[in-house]
Amino acid sequence: MKIWNAYGSEHSMNLVLIGTFKQERDADNVNTFIDKIVEQAAKDEAYDISRSAPEDQRFSDDMLSLLRANRAYSLSPTDLEQFALDHSIDRDGNRITVRTEEADLSAFIKVFVEAGARVEIFSAHDYPEDKSKQD
Fold this sequence. Notes:
This protein is an alpha+beta fold. 31% of the residues lie in helices and 18% in strands. The chain is built from 4 helices and 4 strands.
């Protein structure tokens, strides 16, 4: 069951982020790492961090350990909200696809780029996906 943790408007971004990695194991490692971040972000109620006073915008000890273990140094506490909001992730070989209605994908982009992925972002409103044309 999904729990809605944010407010919204009638407009949806319908963004698609595709990370293509050099090797399948890189995509697998990133997918596993994102799953762990999502799980920890839910425990930490990270969807609320950006609404906190600046001095209270911090990583939990568990999140900090996870980020250090994975050498993910570019993420900020407010980036974690993106992992707590509604999105879907699909992995196919060396490619990970993230779909979301949110406007900000910077946390996912940081994780993908740090792992050496080539990144493509588009709105599925303007460019509906045609799986038969994907390489």
